[in-house]
Here is the input.
Amino acid sequence: MIHIFEKQDSLVSQYISEVRDVEIQKDSMRFRRNMERLGQIFAYEISKKLQWEKTMVTTSLGEAQCKVIKEQPVIATILRAGLPMHQGMLAYFDSAENAFVSAYRKHHKNGKFTIQIEYTSCPELDGKVLILNDPMLATGSSMVLTYKELIENGKPAHTHLVSILASVQGVEYVKKNLPSDSFTLWVGAVDDELTAKAYIVPGLGDAGDLAYGNKL
Here is the structure.
């Protein structure tokens, strides 16, 4: 199952237009805030797919039957670009467990690159709902490799993969390399072009640099 938010008019389109805009991008605080907002919207939509249960809540005047999430998800993030989205999701799933993965592109002299994972911090995942976010789904290899790294800590009941922007190639790579019954893909918008250096066009640039400053 794939959900592409820009197919319907909503605030997602407004925030995506702002994170793409080179003038607005000059304000890193606003860029991070828009990423947080998008994370919150994704969290809200994903919450509709979770299991809920009834509970009785004591109020000042009596008791009310309410519905609450049966079990909080595990929110996983690829460092560092995913941190603002992660914060947005955590604001909504405020009792969620968290996982962090350090993954990066290691460039080679021939112009190609491989995805390297250096560090993983993750709770037990068996039978839990996993939400894995990475703002940009370019080739899709980072998302797939990170997912496979995380499930070394147990098999989730279901996984929600979240990206603000994706390429057509990235979406197809994920569909090809992960079992279709194990995940749902949530994407803000899908761009057609992926360059030889695996940059999404028109894309938005390097989300990590825009949020936290340029790296060496």
